[in-house]
Design a protein that fits this description.
single chain, alpha/beta, Rossmann fold, N-(1-d-carboxylethyl)-l-norvaline Dehydrogenase, domain 2, 2 domains, eight-stranded mixed beta sheet, 9 helices
Amino acid sequence: MKVVIIGSGNVATVLGRLMVQNDVEVLQIISRNIDHAANLANELNCKYSDYNGLLDANADIYIIAVSDTALTPHVEFIKNLNKPVAHTAGSVPKDVLKTISNQYGVFYPLQSLRKEMKIIPPLPILIDASDAFTLDLLQQLAIKISDQVQVANDEQRQKLHVAAVFVNNFTNHLYVIAESYCQKEGVDFNVLKPLIIETAQRMAESSPSKWQTGPAARNDLFTIEKHLSLLQNYPEWKELYVNLTNSIMDA
């Protein structure tokens, strides 16, 4: 299978590496920034170009691996391509590509990806397409780099994207708050890291509802009041503590 990747950021880089490692031929990297395109292309041993260059017409499929907000200008760049094309955005409908091809779809890696990753974590890929041929093509590509491939329509992907914000972005923000609280109060945040890892690893065993612990789960009002008194100087964090406590108690 031959692929052209449009984009040179985190998603494009990780997908490109996985494709090359699994015998998918990356023909070309296209990026708005020619230097970024060159850096990734040199790593993957392929051609590169910016928007002023020529798009390699020999690929089986074209993957637009850019952020949601950057998708529209990239779409305009390959207008009238009329070959199978897919974007990697979780919350953008597949029909955004219908103006450039009759064969279009989505190739969404549901994972937090960074160029700097030494080890690439398990990478669920959600696919969807305008037609059976493109869906089959995306599935062939997906199973080469992932053992978790599912077909998910626009609505399903958007709902999973919402859920992903809860388990990844919001959770990480709570870590940021905890670290800041520890720094302000002169205690060591690092001693909490084994707890963070243990809590995450439990999710592989069963439903997270089985593992809910803490004063709210125990209805331990005495401890909750003590915690709230320790948060008196941080009204926003105190309010968040109260809201999360009520949510756990109401579950």
